[in-house]
Amino acid sequence: MDAQLSHLPLFGGPKAWHASDWTSTDDRVRGGSSQSELTCSPSSLVAKFHGNLDITTLGGAGFASQRTKSEKRKWNLSSYDGIELNIAGGDGKLYTLNIKDEIAPKRPDGRQESALVWEYDFRADGAKKVYIKWDDLRPTYRGKEQGNVRPLDLKKVKQVSIMIRSFFGKQEGEFQLDIVSISAFRVKHYRDDPEDEDYEIIDDKMEDDVYSPDNPKRQGWLSWFGGCCGLT
């Protein structure tokens, strides 16, 4: 049995980047001074997430992020295994992918209420593909990891965002992350017998440059991934 990948492009790749799909959510909503931009266009092959992470205004804290803008958009990703980030280049800093399945209402002052967020941290230190299995996402509320919460509703993913934060003063200043694409991925198995009802040929090739942070839990995901591919 072999395993290969199929993809559902969400942004970039065969699905063009549009700056109008994204908006900033920086620490300025809490009185900070960080700022971010997502520079892209329909003709761009790469979207650039860049800006300045300031930690002086909030005494060591700071974050900058770009999130999908539309509150009516919804993706059904329940038949996929996770998210693939195709990174063209980075500055070595630690970034975070955030996913939400609900959009909280706004408060009277215009700020949005908090909601559960599923997060994954990755380091951008060059061109690579980052494979994020659903189980690798950490549920958080206001930045704190939560236990005993409901699972992410993959049938109605409503928001995706890319964030950089200070991690209590551990990183700051100018940042830049170049993204080729964001896609949902699925590992498909098939048999050599064409009469098998599960037989399916996928054209996408497995990449060798699978990213692995130094984290035992995520190493477990790599072992699963390698096992599917016959790499272990």
In short:
The chain is 6% helix and 40% strand.
Supply database-style keywords.
Complex I intermediate-associated protein 30-domain-containing protein, Galactose-bd-like_sf, unfolded protein binding, 6-stranded antiparallel beta sheet, NDUFAF1, disordered C terminus, Jelly Rolls, about 230 residues
Itemize the secondary structure elements and their pairings.
Elements: E1 2-12, E2 22-24, E3 35-39, E4 47-53, E5 63-68, E6 82-90, E7 94-100, E8 117-123, E9 128-133, E10 138-141, E11 144-145, E12 159-165, E13 173-190, H1 216-229
Antiparallel strand pairs: 1-13, 2-5, 3-4, 4-13, 5-12, 6-9, 6-13, 7-8, 7-12, 8-10, 10-11
Output the structural class.
Answer: mainly beta
Radius of gyration: 18 Å
Q: Element order, helices and strands?
A: EEEEEEEEEEEEEH
The chain-level mean pLDDT equals 83
For the largest beta-sheet, the strand count, sense and barrel status come to: 7 strands, antiparallel
Q: How many angstroms does the end-to-end distance come to?
A: 14 Å
Strand content: 35-45%
Strand order of the largest sheet: 2-5-12-7-8-10-11
Helix content range: under 10%
Family: Belongs to the CIA30 family.
GO molecular function, one term: unfolded protein binding
Protein name: Complex I intermediate-associated protein 30-domain-containing protein
GO biological process, one term: NADH dehydrogenase complex assembly
